[in-house]
Amino acid sequence: MMTTATPRPGGRSARVQQAVHQAVRSLLAENDGDRTALSVPLVADRAGVNSSTIYRRWGDLPRLLAAVASNQMLPEQVEDTGSLRGDMEAWFVPYVEEFSSPLGRQVLRDMLADGAVTRDYFQSMQGHVEEIRRLAGLRGERAPATSEIVDAVVAPVIYRILFNHESAAALEVQGRIERLLGERSKGPAET
To answer: Which residue pairs from 118-122 have beta carbons closer than 8 angstroms and sit at least 24 positions apart in sequence?
Structure first.
């Protein structure tokens, strides 16, 4: 089975991944997001690697696109804004703004086309939500369970981006966060 998970950090492997991912991003930018303009040999040439390296590591162009998409989907770390609401908005609002665009929707579709990438992305996204909850707990704030945040905010927004092609404004992310936190404000903190 072909793996699209991030290879071990550091060394040649990390440099190759970075070069290939950067090549994909720059080629997409140069071609206004037109994925049909890309090919494995073109990406390999831009990255300064052999095509066989890409085929061996990612399998084919769709899997490479999915890996690049998942790698850029979430911020590297959660921002501590001083409040649960602020942390959730700082994490999720830019995500929605970027991925509700036509190119962003295509990136989501690329990512969903590969089950291994989808699982890796979901684990990473859950890790971000758990970090937001951890920061809230340190401040003494009551945070909904990770599954509640995913079910009330993340899942419906991603669904509506993919299937209804809704804009960031129409998705009302801040309102969703506010409603979720308002419903939870009287209950005990979840662990």
So the answer is: 118/70, 120/4, 120/5, 120/6, 120/70, 121/70, 121/73, 121/74
